[in-house]
Amino acid sequence: MNRRVLASIVAVSGIVAGGVLLAPGAAAYPVGPWGVQGPCAGKAAQECPMSPSEDGLTWGWHGDAWNYDKTGAFVCMSSAFWCPPLMGVVRALPPTPVGSWIHPG
Description:
It comes from Nocardia rhizosphaerihabitans. The chain is an alpha+beta fold. It has one domain (28-102). The chain has three helices and four strands, in the order αββββαα. It has a four-stranded antiparallel beta sheet. A hairpin with a 5-residue loop joins strand 3 and strand 4 (74-77). The longest helix is centred in the N-terminal third of the chain and has 21 residues, at 2-22. The N and C termini lie far apart (71 Å).
């Protein structure tokens, strides 16, 4: 009986270890419900120093933040006095290209 238990533990441990070793890397960006990639486009989470907000629209680093609309276009830096109220509007609207309107081209 002890050998069966030991064999089961070894088998399960091997399966788990194999799954961990063969699994893809940590979750890659985009984040949030709109899939905004922010300044970390094309990078894995461990490759980007930015920290995204839960909704993925704000990406912070060293006390400042880059803000994006729900289409992924850059809107503003949080250090601009007009950015927090504008981001409130962006979050309230359905996906709208606010960033493209502010920064065309």
